[in-house]
């Protein structure tokens, strides 16, 4: 009897450059794909609404692609440690392969599973696939992890170049008998009452084929003026690859090798470097989503939360055009341009004096690229409490930022047209920028006293 190999797909919903899938194929036995929706294991953060929408469609695409090549994607729900072992038993599998994850609770689950499966004589192997550099390999001269980006990225670039991507398999031979699978529709990942996902459907096509197409389009049309235009939200100059990398529809190796030979790609690749830096930071500091990386920020005197102020920010009703445009882009599309993410985050933290964690949670719920490392890392970066962070006293002025980065008001006009229409009636500014900036700086004195 053949003993099939299971490939446990996680944040790597692709067939190309998938080392775990390659290892399973090389083993020479039938291959079964497995995805586990784990909402129960300790420490695993439940996905936000926009992420669930993306996951549904990306899984549907992956299942179709596996089926076209001869195998199937089996869906199971529950705590991964139990569910994977059950799937192995049901399939009579002799081996399980996966690509590594770097969050704290995920690593614990994977390590425990690896040793339990091996005890049961099941072959297990894990692979590097989601990051260009393994977090434990990039260290300072003193063997510590980096807390500043530039030397971090220099150290990465001094390493041997990231390996070339693996080709996509043409066939994935399946077994004659499959273990039972849930029905994707029964997971209720899509919103129904109300169905708020129309904007997402209009904006995105999840899945590996669309991800590959976007990569090619970006390289052909946009990379050449990336450095000049990346900060202008209306320019459409950035790659929009963040959800593709988040869900692993593309590997960073594929992106790296596709771009690296293009003249002027280094600015773009350095952004991929920030993604690496965020993940490496999370690896060394697993509580990044909840705890200040710089503990002196624990002394920050956050005032009592004003729910109406938080709500106005979430809904894009602050009375500041650039903030409102960004928050509405996020709500509508599950995405926001990086410059505007910084402006809206700074406004929440420094002008509304609302704890960065409340903003991080909202982004987590709304972003299709919501990422356990990048989201928390960047919120802490704006707050000043993170790694190589913007200094707290740098408070983005949303009006000056609009003058500089949305000169023609094209972005604002698109997302918050009442600010650009002659007879539009924008909301009244909810706070005074100057006074709130002064308050924030005064509060920051408390942090300075303990640092
Ligand atoms: P490009 O400019 O084309 O960059 C290419 C890739 O580099 C991106 O796809 C992304 O994977 C990576 N990247 C770029 N900038 C950063 C950065 N600052 N940090 C980490 N990776 C980066 N990015 C996420 O992927 N998920 C998040 O949840 C997320 N939350 C954020 C929250 C805040 C408050 C801020 C300020 C930034 C956040 N970012 C997040 C980073 C950045 O805004 C997005 O990665 C970027 O806007 C995605 O658009 P793009 O793919 O067109 O980027």
TrEMBL record:
Keywords: Chromophore, FAD, Flavoprotein, Lyase. One of its GO terms (molecular function) is deoxyribodipyrimidine photo-lyase activity. Its cofactor is FAD. Its EC number is 4.1.99.3. Gene3D superfamilies: 1.25.40.80, DNA Cyclobutane Dipyrimidine Photolyase, subunit A, domain 3 (1.10.579.10), HUPs (3.40.50.620). It is an enzyme of class 4 (lyase). Residues 3-132 form the Photolyase/cryptochrome alpha/beta domain. It comes from the Bacteria. Residues 164-184 are annotated as: Disordered. Belongs to the DNA photolyase family. PANTHER family: CRYPTOCHROME, CRYPTOCHROME CIRCADIAN CLOCK 5 ISOFORM X1. This is Deoxyribodipyrimidine photo-lyase.
């Amino acid at each position: 009897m053949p003993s099939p190999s299971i490939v446990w797909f996680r944040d790597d919903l692709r067939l190309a450059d998938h080392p775990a899938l390659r290892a399973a194929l090389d083993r020479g036995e039938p291959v079964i794909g497995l995805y586990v929706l784990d909402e129960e294991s300790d420490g695993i953060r439940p996905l936000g609404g926009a992420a669930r929408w993306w996951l549904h469609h990306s899984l549907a695409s992956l299942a179709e692609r596996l089926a076209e090549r001869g195998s199937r994607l089996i869906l199971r729900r529950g705590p991964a440690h139990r569910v994977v072992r059950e799937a192995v038993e049901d399939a009579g599998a002799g081996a399980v392969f996966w690509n590594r994850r770097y969050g704290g609770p995920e690593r614990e689950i994977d390590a425990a599973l690896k040793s339990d499966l091996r005890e049961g004589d099941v072959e297990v192997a894990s692979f590097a696939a989601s990051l260009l550099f393994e977090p434990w390999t990039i260290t300072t001269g003193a063997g510590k992890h980096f807390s500043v980006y530039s030397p971090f990225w220099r150290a990465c670039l001094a390493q041997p170049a990231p390996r070339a991507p693996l080709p996509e398999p043409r066939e994935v031979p399946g077994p004659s008998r499959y273990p039972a699978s849930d029905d994707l529709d029964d997971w209720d990942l899509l919103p129904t009452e109300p169905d708020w996902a129309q904007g997402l459907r209009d904006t995105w096509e999840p899945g590996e084929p669309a991800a590959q197409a976007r990569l090619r389009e970006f390289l052909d049309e946009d990379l050449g003026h990336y450095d000049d235009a990346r900060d202008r939200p209306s320019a459409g100059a950035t790659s929009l690859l963040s959800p593709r990398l988040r869900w692993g529809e593309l590997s960073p190796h594929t992106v790296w090798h596709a771009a690296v030979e293009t003249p002027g790609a280094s600015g773009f690749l350095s952004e991929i470097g920030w993604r690496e830096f965020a993940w490496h930071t999370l690896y060394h500091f697993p509580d990044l989503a909840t705890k200040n990386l710089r503990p002196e920020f624990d002394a920050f005197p956050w005032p009592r939360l004003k729910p109406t102020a938080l709500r106005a920010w979430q809904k894009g009703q602050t009375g500041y055009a650039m903030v409102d445009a960004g928050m509405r882009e996020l709500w509508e599309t599950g995405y926001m341009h990086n410059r505007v993410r910084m402006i809206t985050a700074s406004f929440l933290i420094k002008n509304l004096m609302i704890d960065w964690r409340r903003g991080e949670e909202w982004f987590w719920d709304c972003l299709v690229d919501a990422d356990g490392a990048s989201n928390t890392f960047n919120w802490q970066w704006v707050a000043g409490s993170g790694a190589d962070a913007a200094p707290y006293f740098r408070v983005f002025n949303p009006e000056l930022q609009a003058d500089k980065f949305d000169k023609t008001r094209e972005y604002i006009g698109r997302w918050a047209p009442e600010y650009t229409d002659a007879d539009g009636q924008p909301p009244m500014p909810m706070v005074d920028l100057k006074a709130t900036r002064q308050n924030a700086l005064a509060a920051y004195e408390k942090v300075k006293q303990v640092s």
